[in-house]
Amino acid sequence: MPSGTKLDDLQARFGVAGALRFEEAGGLVRAVVATARAQGDVYLQGAHVARYRPAGQQQPVLFVSTRSAFAAGKAIRGGVPLIFPWFGAKADNPSAPQHGFARVAAFDVESARADGDGKVTLVLRLEADAASRRAWPHDFVARYRVTMGETLELAFEVENRSASPFAYEEALHTYLTVGDVRKATIGGLAGTTFIDKVDGLKRKREGAAPIQLGGETDRVYLDTTATCVVDDPVLGRRLVVDKQGSASTVVWNPWNEKAKGMADFGDDEWPRMVCIETANAADNAVTLPPGAKHETSALIRAEAR
Ligand code: BG6
Prior knowledge:
Helix content: under 10%
Largest sheet: 8 strands, antiparallel
Radius of gyration: 19 Å
Strand content: 35-45%
Bound molecules: 6-O-phosphono-beta-D-glucopyranose
Structural class: mainly beta
Low-confidence stretches: none
Order of helices and strands: HEEEEEEEHEEEEEEEEEEEEHEEE
Number of strands: 22
Mean pLDDT: 97
């Protein structure tokens, strides 16, 4: 349970009347954005954006499971888990936690501001420490800039503070809300090669048509910097994911059978989400020389169709 003092301190240093406040929820600390332009939550654990709804949208842009844990050391099932420094299983240590340590790490608040027009920007920071070095022996500083307004902007920067180069993978593991994933289509990945994680990691090439999912889907699309558009006829909107500094896009939906096996995901929730992840994974891992930085960002917006 966070101490009152810590909350008071965060509130005093970074709170903005009428735009941003800090509160405790289920033993975790979260920043709550509430302006005329947007509503949202960002948990300091994992720098986890767990809620975002711009003004004018009846449905949230981000999906969060009703069964999600909100607890120390557990990743939230939904929103935008921040995946770093490896994606999926760690290549040289299969017993390391899936998707890296960042999504449950304690981030600090570096800065916060509101522009007076309903747009709020929060910068969170994570640095290597003894625990991270045990899992991944490199010195780094990571900064995550989250801007909520008419759009959601996520920018994750990693700086190499080591004396030698390192390589890492990352993903802004964005769970998007859709009316029915079976009726939605995903545009932007035509002709792109992907690793099919539900078919023995075979490499395949996407066809020309927008993607319509028909079963469990877990694909790492490679060498793509394209904008993805989720066209959702049920909710009558398009969700647009525009990105920079990212060469992979991951598309994931567990479908019915896998959903049943997930303790933190309702059996019937899978039709209401699709993950479109702005990533650098597999062949597209980032290599940073000492002192260098790399930023990966996503700009997410909802528009009427
Ligand atoms: C996706 C992976 O990004 O995340 C999937 O490609 C994985 O393989 C999914 O199942 C969810 O991962 P987790 O660790 O949050 O259950």
